[in-house]
Design a protein that fits this description.
Elements lengths: L2 H8 L8 H22 L3 H26 L12
Helix pairs in contact: 2-3
């Protein structure tokens, strides 16, 4: 087994290191943090608006993955660690 083959055989399947995954996680993280803050400040309307952004983040990630920015997409270029 050559070195290149060994590297390819041991390569990670992506682990979500793509623009689509990062965008989805950041949107959902900000929504949850804002919702927590608004819950603490006792502003129920903004808590529910923040909660509505969690599925929006998932849809943005899905849409970017379908647009080619996912792990196996043509517009994604993996970076070396």
């Amino acid at each position: 087994m050559s070195d290149q083959t060994a590297i390819e055989a041991h390569a990670e399947p992506g682990e979500g290191h793509s623009p689509a995954a990062w965008a989805a996680v950041i949107i959902m993280l900000v929504a949850i943090a804002a919702g927590t803050l608004f819950f603490w400040l006792d502003i129920p309307a903004l808590v529910w608006i923040s909660a509505a952004f969690v599925p929006v983040g998932a849809l943005v990630g899905w849409g970017l993955a379908k647009a080619g920015y996912g792990v196996n997409g043509p517009k994604y270029t993996p970076k070396e660690h």
